[in-house]
């Protein structure tokens, strides 16, 4: 699999299912915490690649991407978003469909607001653009880091799991203390059709938060599923139906139109 050395200082590992096919639209996949494109999206990649050039990146510090160890500065979501845009530039991709899960969903929402003209559509799930006060105890429960498996430690080069989770918790608390905004304030600048998806059992991302972002965006809708955080794994058939229709319909699906 190839690597891209970016002017942002990241060296990203990525997959590209059709690098020489200029006729296929690009679907750019962004994974969540402790993931890689191959780890979080195997079925999504196989499903999309007949019709799309699928580019699945691995965020800095995860998998084979660098620098390591993975860090969580106050602006890590923005940093990751700049990496995504730099990778598109490096691969000479002017415009793409972006699909992001969990932290990758937050990055997809930020990308929609930071670079509105780069997207045919935005699909995000397990993300709402906002860290509400209720997230504080959820974040705190991530410590200690004993829940991180040895396989995950080896995959991502994590030598100290407690330092890893404490870095994330500290930043999450800082975001909450400053009002919780990730991409909510940028939502009016998101001009591409946006599909936001949440599981009804997703304790990190209440539907009311997602609705706030959707209401503020230009062409957006919220879909909820009877599952938890990982909609693409827990409600696969429904995920395919909803996302497939959205990608085919484009702007016609904005604000619930069909």
Molecular structure report:
The chain is an alpha/beta fold and 258 residues long. It has a single domain, classed as Rossmann fold (3-Layer(aba) Sandwich), CATH 3.40.50. The protein contains ten helices and eight strands. The chain has helices at residues 37-40, 42-48, 76-90, 103-114, 135-140, 150-156, 161-177, 207-216, 231-234, 236-249, and strands at 3-5, 11-16, 26-30, 53-57, 96-101, 119-125, 194-199, 220-225. β5, α4 and β6 form a beta-alpha-beta unit. α3 (76-90) crosses α4. The longest helix is centred in the middle third of the chain and has 17 residues, at 161-177. It is globular. Residues 251-258 have low confidence and may be disordered.
Helix content: 25-40%
Taking all Cα atoms into account, the compactness measure Rg is 17 Å
Can you identify the CATH superfamily? Alpha/Beta hydrolase fold, catalytic domain
What CATH calls the topology is Rossmann fold
The overall pLDDT, averaged over residues, is 95
Query: Could you say how many structural domains there are in total?
Result: 1
Quick overview of this protein structure:
With 258 residues, this protein is an alpha/beta fold. It has helices spanning 37-40, 42-48, 76-90, 103-114, 135-140, 150-156, 161-177, 207-216, 231-234, 236-249, and strands spanning 3-5, 11-16, 26-30, 53-57, 96-101, 119-125, 194-199, 220-225.
Q: What is the strand and helix layout of this fold?
A:
Layout: E1 3-5, E2 11-16, E3 26-30, H1 37-40, H2 42-48, E4 53-57, H3 76-90, E5 96-101, H4 103-114, E6 119-125, H5 135-140, H6 150-156, H7 161-177, E7 194-199, H8 207-216, E8 220-225, H9 231-234, H10 236-249
Parallel strand pairs: 3-4, 3-5, 5-6, 6-7, 7-8
Antiparallel strand pairs: 1-2, 2-4
């Amino acid at each position: 699999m190839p690597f891209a050395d970016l002017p942002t200082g990241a060296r990203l590992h990525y997959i590209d299912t059709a690098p020489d096919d200029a006729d296929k639209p690009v679907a750019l996949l962004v994974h969540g915490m402790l993931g890689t494109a191959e780890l979080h999206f195997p079925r999504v990649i196989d499903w999309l690649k007949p019709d799309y050039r699928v580019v699945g990146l691995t965020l800095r510090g995860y998998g084979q991407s660098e620098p390591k160890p993975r860090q969580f500065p106050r602006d890590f979501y923005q940093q990751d978003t700049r990496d995504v845009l730099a990778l598109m530039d490096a691969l000479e991709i002017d415009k793409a469909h972006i699909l992001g899960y969990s932290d990758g969903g937050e990055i997809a929402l930020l990308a929609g607001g930071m670079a509105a003209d780069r997207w045919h559509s935005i699909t995000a799930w397990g993300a709402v653009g906002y860290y509400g006060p209720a997230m504080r105890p959820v974040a705190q429960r991530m410590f200690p880091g004993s829940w991180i498996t040895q396989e995950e430690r080896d995959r991502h080069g994590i030598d100290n799991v407690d330092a890893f989770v404490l870095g994330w918790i500290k930043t999450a608390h800082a975001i909450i203390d400053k009002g919780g905004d990730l991409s909510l304030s940028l939502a009016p600048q998101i001009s591409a059709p946006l599909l936001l998806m949440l599981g009804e059992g997703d304790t990190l991302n209440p539907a009311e938060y997602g609705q706030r972002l959707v209401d503020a965006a230009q062409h957006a809708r919220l879909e909820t599923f009877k599952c938890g955080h990982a909609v693409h794994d827990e409600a696969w058939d429904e995920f395919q139906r909803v996302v497939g229709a959205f990608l085919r319909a484009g702007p016609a699906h904005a604000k619930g139109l069909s």
